[in-house]
Design a protein that fits this description.
The structure holds 2 protein chains of 2 kinds.
Chain A lengths: L4 H17 L1 H21 L14 H30 L2 H6 L5 H29 L9 H27 L5 H15 L11 H7 L3 H14 L6 H24 L4
Helix pairs in contact in A: 1-5, 2-3, 3-5, 3-6, 3-7, 3-9, 5-6, 6-9, 6-10, 9-10
Chain B lengths: L3 E10 L2 E11 L4 E5 L6 H8 L7 E6 L2 E2 L4 H7 E4 L11 H11 L4 H14 L15 H14 L4 E5 L7 H17 L3 E6 L2 H7 L2 E6 L2 E6 L1 H6 L4 E7 L2 H10 L5 E5 L2 E6 L2 H9 L3 H4 L3 E7 L3 H9 L3 H20 L1
Parallel strand pairs in B: 3-8, 3-9, 6-7, 7-8
Antiparallel strand pairs in B: 1-2, 1-4, 4-5, 9-10, 11-13, 11-14, 12-13
Helix pairs in contact in B: 3-4, 3-5, 4-5
Classes of the chains: A mainly alpha, B alpha/beta.
Chain lengths: 254, 329
């Protein structure tokens, strides 16, 4: 199993070109997190509720959550985009090339990660315009690291769905049945301490919970869970989903 | 060494034998056709040769490399044009080709060079920097043929290369295919369900039906199997004519119906002048009309399978529907 760097580069380049050429897709992807950021952010500006108090105000609580939200949706969709390639036949062109499947998966993950991070950072910039301030600037690197872990994990998850689904019919279903519940369970929008105990237990099964917590720690210096736990869960989730996703992709026949 | 050799190749999908123990060889530099109705197993055969699906049993080799065990080596030496377009619509024609070149291990400079050349062959230079989204069906097909040439494969697989194209574009694509085979010496295997395409392009044709090869030879030989050309002659006095026609040494078989005689002959076009030379007075009849019909591959298909390709396609579709129904239950 050899890794082909030219192939990885050209797959990444393709992702970039497609990304830059489909503004409408990016805008529609960013719409939801942007709405949450703007309307919840301004709407609850002065509000205080239990759990939020540890951060400066609700905006500082919300921004890491909205970034996590951006990452989960853009990354899962990037993984699922294999289905679009299958639908439009381009997957065959990729599969018939003398390139190891591992290189194809790596190229796709790096490509998806890049576009996903660009969008997350865009949201971050917008929130700075809304009055969000970093807890300290050196934490930016840590933020990017957490972003990479979240993104790669959910791209892997997207790849897993892509190999199970076979066609694009289930796209909307994934958004409604998987992505939205994971966002609400992750404590991105409100403190999990306010949830009933049984929902809180479920939320500990949501990898995004640890992602949002990690981002919160990196961005505003506060989290409910210990940081080592966030980091450990994120690394394991990302490794697990990438390995399973690649394995399933590898087995794909046209 | 044969460019391709296939031994007893079989693919079973859900209990259906899509390809059923076929064997054949393709010589280097040959233009080989797989002719048969939709659903006969042509695309499945091609996909197995192109390493995209795994054979259920049997073996296939491309330049001596096993198509499943040595996939990577096979992939390097083949180019494939799929039945359905396999292009990225959000990239330009040139970008699609450069992507391909680099996936096949060319450097950026080499890729650019080869892409330029390939675009020239299919006369798409003018549109190279437009998004593929804006291309017509014929342009897409030409771009795909160009793409398959970028890495200079020794074998080119073309799956229904002119499906759904208008007559003019089809003709143009035929010219490219012929040129490639002749000038560049590329071995080409194409599938088609158009008789005239197989006849015009292929040096040898395998007729495939229900996953089996029912006949394999040059188009000429296949057609000659049917006993040659048929000249139909309409006369005013069948009784006298019959006597004369029966005497002709080059008539292999004689039928007659409603005053029209059907003469089975070889090289019909050379026999018409001989018929015209028959002296009306001496023979006692007048020729009213002459018609020459050369057998087509359609007749060959009919001969081997008992049905025309069109009928077969209808029944094949039915068979799949039946199958699907049974599966759902």
């Amino acid at each position: 199993m050899e890794i082909n760097f030219t192939a990885i580069y050209i797959l990444w380049l393709r992702e970039m070109k497609r990304f830059l050429r489909s503004w409408s897709r990016m805008v529609s992807m960013l719409m939801m997190p942007l709405f949450f950021l703007i309307f919840l952010g301004f709407g609850f500006k002065g509000a205080f509720f239990p759990g939020v108090g540890y951060t400066k105000d609700y905006i500082h609580f919300l921004v890491p959550g909205v970034i996590g939200m951006t990452l989960i949706s853009t990354s899962t969709m990037a993984g699922l985009s294999v289905l679009w390639d299958r639908e439009f036949g381009f997957l065959k062109e990729i599969m018939v090339a003398p390139v190891s499947r591992v290189s194809i998966v790596i190229g796709r993950i790096i490509g998806g990660m890049t576009t996903s991070l660009i969008q997350a950072i865009l949201i971050l910039i917008i929130s700075i315009g809304m009055g969000f301030s970093f807890y300290n600037f050196s934490s930016f690197l840590l933020t990017v690291l957490i972003m990479i872990l979240i993104s790669s994990g959910f791209i892997g998850l997207g790849l897993i769905f892509a190999s199970v689904m076979r066609d694009i019919q289930g796209f909307g279903l994934i958004t409604q049945m998987i992505i939205m519940p994971l966002i609400f369970l992750s404590g991105a929008l409100f403190p999990l301490t306010n949830l009933p105990r049984f929902l809180r237990y479920i939320s500990y099964l949501d990898p995004l919970t640890y992602g949002v917590e990690g981002l919160r720690r990196a961005l505003v210096g506060f989290s409910f869970l210990p940081f080592w736990l966030d980091f450990f869960v994120l690394v394991s989730f990302s490794a697990f989903s990438i390995i399973l996703g690649s394995y399933l992709f590898e087995k794909t026949e046209i | 060494m044969a460019a391709i050799s296939v031994e007893n190749l079989t693919k079973v999908f859900n209990g259906l034998r899509a390809v059923d123990g076929i064997s054949f060889e393709v010589k280097e530099g040959e233009l080989f056709g797989l002719l048969g109705p939709n659903g006969a197993g042509k695309t499945t055969t091609l996909n197995m040769l192109a390493t995209l699906i795994r054979p259920t049993s049997g073996k296939a080799f491309v330049f001596g490399f096993d198509v499943w065990k040595e996939r990577d080596k096979v992939r390097k030496s083949i180019g494939m044009v799929f039945q359905e377009p396999a292009l990225d619509n959000y990239l330009t024609g040139r970008e699609n080709l450069e992507f391909h070149g680099m996936m096949y291990g060319l450097s950026r400079r080499e890729a650019k060079e080869r892409v330029k050349e390939a675009l020239k062959i299919v006369e798409l230079e003018e549109f190279a920097d437009k998004l593929v989204e804006t291309y017509s069906g014929g342009m897409k097909r030409r771009l795909e043929i160009a793409r398959a040439l970028v890495h200079q494969p020794k074998i080119l697989f073309l799956d229904e290369p002119t499906l759904g194209l208008d007559a003019q574009t089809r003709r143009r694509i035929w010219d490219y295919i012929k040129k490639l085979n002749k000038e560049k010496g590329v071995t080409i295997i194409l599938t088609t369900h158009y008789m005239e395409e197989a006849d015009f392009l292929a040096q040898r044709v395998a007729i495939i039906d229900y996953g089996k090869i029912v006949a394999l030879d040059t188009p000429e030989n296949l057609k000659n199997l049917l006993g040659g050309d048929v000249i139909s002659v309409e006369v005013d006095n069948p009784r006298n004519a019959k006597k004369v026609f029966e005497e002709l040494p080059w008539v292999k078989k004689l039928n007659h119906e409603n005053g029209i005689f059907y003469l089975q002959v070889e090289k019909g076009e050379e026999k018409i002048p001989l018929l015209i030379k028959i002296d009306e007075k001496e023979a006692g009849f007048k020729i009213k009309s002459i018609n020459l019909r050369k057998p087509t591959l359609e007749d060959v298909f009919l001969h081997f399978t008992g049905r025309t390709i069109r009928e077969r396609e209808a029944s094949q579709a039915e068979r799949f529907r039946e199958r699907a129904k049974r599966h759902r239950r």
